[in-house]
Here is the input.
Amino acid sequence: MRRTPDDEGTVTLLIVFFALIVAALITVVVDVSTVFLAERQLQSVADGAAAAAAQQADVGAIYQGSAADALPLSPEGVSDTVGAYLAEPAHRPHECHGSEQVVAARTDGRTVTVHLRCQVPLPFVNVVAQLWSDGVTIDVVANAQTVIRPAA
Here is the structure.
């Protein structure tokens, strides 16, 4: 089979085109996976902080008899516990690179709400876009409550 002069380089062009498509797909998969894992880690930390803070009883309210179906919580104890929980290195999501922050740690006296935020740098996109992008901001919210069950 004889080649015509117009066919020269078409295979090279296709290989380069397909390589660019594969590189773009790898970039998207890695960056999306990074954000997904960071969100799961941050949600796990928020859940742990809320569960730990839900154990901070307001002793004065208990002795006054206001503990009917849920443990009354101390606002100061909730804030201190969430801060202490997040200060431990084991509870820091590594994908956030130290950018995690407590947006809110509050209680209504019965339920603890912990709202965390973190900035996740993207491995591939930030190489190209670091001048105008700091990555993706992730917000998570966790709630916890300690329920009191009467003895049977």
Notes: The chain has a mean pLDDT of 83. The CA atoms of residues 23 and 32 lie 14 Å apart.
